[in-house]
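Field reference: sequence -> structure
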Amino acid sequence: MLICCVCLWLLSSTQLFSQATITQILSNGPPASCINIVFLSEGYTASQLGQFTNDAKALLNYMQSGPPFDAYPNYFNGYAIAVASAESGADHPLSGINRNTYFNSSFYSYDIERLLTIPPNNLDGNYADGAGKVYALLQALMPEYDLVTVIVNDPEYGGSGGEILITSMNIDSPEIAAHELGHTFAALGDEYSDAYPGWVPSEMPNVTQQTNRALIKWTSWILDSTPIPTPDTSPYASVVGLFEGAEYQTSGWYRPQHICEMRALGYPYCKVCAETLVKAIYTRIRPIKSNAPATNAPVTLANSQSVTLSVATLHPNTFNLNVLWFTNNVACGGATNSSFTVDTTALPFGSNQVKVEVTDPNPVVRTDPAQLLKDNRAWQVQILSPRLEYQRLQGAMLLSWTTNAQGFVLEYKTNLAPSVSWQPAGAPTIVSNRYTFTESIGRNAKFYRLHH
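Structure field:
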């Protein structure tokens, strides 16, 4: 595993902040070709930072251990930014406990006991005390971040989502992180039906007010035999439907399944949430990582030349991506490898397009109108005019040219004067992928050309 450490001293107008280090805890490629998860320490004293790195590794492993992420661990890099706090833990306003921590984290945010946040919040509106420090560290140490998680060294149950995922180190912290990951990574909504006064519900990928079967966002997952709305009873416990109770509303708002990680900890993501999470992966990273040669200039071939086109793709853990090559929009049967060799016998004279499509076939995704799970590259391959080759035989001459020269006709004339017209020489035969034409050698000179 690649390990890298960088040190940073952050200065403000009034104080010198603690020293911060970054350690890579998971490496699957350069940041540009991976989803980069960054963990930051909160409420860990200098002597506890070693434990923070272990906590970050454990949390990352857990986040990737269940579906749908268990198919995609190779898509991620992991980093741990360790920065010491003067004291351990987080603030507990209800108990009168205030800790001196780097990001000033606090429970009981917005009068919700288990809502754990960092500023700006209702307890401290100063962006620079919390989120500002997070983004300053990211900018300095890991500007290519995709997902940010603050691990708070406090045993109390709590966390929050949003642009920054925050979780405490409660025994259930991995499940807290998995739930908050749904919010932060894929904009999933809460499927709780417990009333929360003042909460304004909104449409999310997994919550809706829509009751028209045809217009429900996840209608492709709903069987015709499933009633809408769907009774929350045992016969429908494992199907996708329209279950009432979501977004802190007991009625009028609906979720896809009876139970889900976004409703209760300890359960897997429902089918709709899992599909949304996989799509979220492909909004950040594409199935094709690189290609050779470059596609911004034509590839030119003449005579018997060939070229090998190739792509480097991502590699899911439990299945392979589908690869298919096309020439001039016609699929090449059996061409399903990451490389494809083209020669002058396979394409007609002139400009041709050779394209590869790479698709993630994961059945977790049922609908993909934006084609997020599909990627392609296309090359323009220019086949130059064929060269007429000459070979002298006993009393005859043999002319030959490549069979890809469709539309070309062998012509001759006995005098190169402009007034003398070119005439068809006769029909050639095909020998070993080449057109051949044999002419007896006579007293009169003949001049030959291939004409298109």
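Note: The helical segments are 49-63, 131-141, 173-186, 271-284.
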